[in-house]
Amino acid sequence: MFRISGLLSSLVVLTFVLEISCLENGTLAKLKKFVNCESKAYKSSNAIYKDYWVLENYVMADHGDIPCYSNVTYTTHADYTYLDNVVPLLERWRSPLSLAIYAPGTDFEPTIHSILYLLQCHPGHDLVRQLCSIHLYFDVEHLPQVVLPPETTLREPANCSGPPPYENVVKGNMYRSRNTLDYPVNMGRNVARRASLTHYVLASDIELYPTPGLVPDYMHFLGRQVIGIPGQQPTSPLVHVLRIFEVMANVSVPNTKPELQEMLKSGEAVPFHMDICEACHRGPNLEEWINASVVSKELNVFNVGHRSENNNNWEPIFLGTVEDPPYDERLTWEGQRDKMTQAYAMCVLDYEFHILDNAFLVHKPGIKQPGNRKEIFPQARRTNGLIDKKISREMRMMYGSRNGCVI
Ligand SMILES: *[C@@H]1O[C@H](CO)[C@@H](O)[C@H](O)[C@H]1NC(C)=O
Ligand SMILES: *[C@@H]1O[C@H](CO)[C@@H](O)[C@H](O)[C@H]1NC(C)=O
Ligand SMILES: *[C@@H]1O[C@H](CO)[C@@H](O)[C@H](O)[C@H]1NC(C)=O
Ligand SMILES: *[C@@H]1O[C@H](CO)[C@@H](O)[C@H](O)[C@H]1NC(C)=O
Ligand SMILES: *[C@@H]1O[C@H](CO)[C@@H](O)[C@H](O)[C@H]1NC(C)=O
């Protein structure tokens, strides 16, 4: 009797200590009190949304329910050929991942095999099972042959002796290429963000890996912010921007800003896509950010930018919330300018872009050469027409306009 209760109380103490080492005393309580959000039930569902079937939470993570104020979800989109990024991303993120995968027609089958491989064969499968929620979506006009319920599909054994089904795929053979379907990137972005259990999200691209420890650091940072002081809430909405870098294919991804600075000096790292679209990624005060020596390891805001003025083409990736303006689902990856309407809305709403120091994103190793720059598709012309004629008028009706905000 005595021994059992002794064991129990030491377990209680252990949990308590773990919790403190995870999140500073009081941070969670503060966030619970001041973050205005409602937790939701974690479950799978199927629905038709616009011209797509969306199988939300087809794969559910073992983490189960999560209070909305207590964590941050990385929300992202992909087709199955990008699933090699899941484990390297989770090894660094170690927090919930909400992933929308576009799987039209016969692309559905290799998508399922890729998922099974990640869940059963990959050395990192524990992380995938623990943290990864997967949503599948496809056009109502391009249904897969069979879609079984997840309970059935996910019980199938994967072929662990073969290569990962997402590797060395000939893109031209994919159903999507053979049927010249555009990649509905914003549909995926919105599906993944809508499914987030947490209020705070990092809506990003799956090849962008964050610095380790970012989520607990960010929660502490939020706890220290004015959200804990009534009457001192910021008047403008704000998000926290992560700067993006690329590294050579043969080096490992830097974990800290000093490591990154060394690699920038040696040329092993460079700011993201500088020679492809400088205006999209530079953001204000990049050189100063790179130059500044690190005095504290804590997350802090280095400088504040706005979308207007000289940064009209800036496409920052940021830690924000599920309530930030959505992505326009008519815009596709091939059409480009896919984040422009969200950016316009954020400009009109006068969002502040607080650029973080001591945290950043690094693209999967390998520096893109201008040679293999993003192809210009004929769809881009169509997008420009759509934005100029239709979307920009709608955006002005919905959000209004403001000096310096252009679309
Ligand atoms: C930690 O939390 C406990 C219980 O909520 C509280 O009594 C204590 O004062 C807190 N300590 C600090 C340093 O905030
Ligand atoms: C598994 O993959 C290996 C290697 O590609 C292949 O030889 C084998 O036939 C596959 N097994 C099944 C059951 O498909
Ligand atoms: C966020 O959720 C994951 C999965 O449950 C957990 O491992 C992690 O510790 C959580 N992060 C924080 C800061 O509580
Ligand atoms: C990586 O490759 C570059 C050339 O592509 C070479 O200059 C550099 O020394 C290599 N670095 C390492 C760590 O192997
Ligand atoms: C960055 O540092 C270098 C060398 O110390 C200096 O020449 C340069 O002016 C600095 N640039 C900025 C923008 O601070």
Summarize the structure.
By secondary structure, the protein is an alpha/beta fold.
Q: Any idea how many domains?
A: 2
Low-confidence stretches: 1-21
Strand content: 15-25%
- Count every helix, treating DSSP H or I runs of 4 or more residues as helices: 14
Oligomer: single chain
The Cα radius of gyration reads 22 Å
Roughly how many Å apart are the termini? 71 Å
The hetero compounds bound to this protein are: 2-acetamido-2-deoxy-beta-D-glucopyranose
Mean pLDDT: 88
**SSE ordering:** HHEEEHEHHEHHHEEHEHEHHEEHEH
Structural class by helix and strand composition = alpha/beta
Helix content: 25-40%
Biggest sheet statistics: 12 strands, mixed
What is the 3D form? globular
Q: What is the β-strand count?
A: 12
SSE inventory with pairings:
Elements: H1 2-22, H2 27-34, E1 45-49, E2 52-59, E3 72-78, H3 86-93, E4 97-102, H4 108-120, H5 125-131, E5 132-139, H6 150-153, H7 175-178, H8 185-194, E6 200-203, E7 208-210, H9 214-224, E8 238-247, H10 257-266, E9 269-271, H11 278-281, H12 286-291, E10 300-305, E11 317-321, H13 340-348, E12 352-363, H14 379-399
One 2-acetamido-2-deoxy-beta-D-glucopyranose binds next to loops.
Describe the structure.
The chain is α/β, with parallel strands linked by helices and 407 residues long. Helix content is 33%, strand content 19%. The protein contains 14 helices and twelve strands. α3 links the parallel β3 (72-78) and β4 (97-102). α2 crosses α9 (214-224). The protein is globular. It starts with a helix and ends in an 8-residue tail after the last helix. The chain binds 2-acetamido-2-deoxy-beta-D-glucopyranose (NAG) (5 copies). One 2-acetamido-2-deoxy-beta-D-glucopyranose (NAG) is lined by residues 25-26. Keywords: Glycosyltransferase, Signal, Transferase. Residues 1-22 form the signal peptide. GO terms for molecular function: glucuronosyltransferase activity.
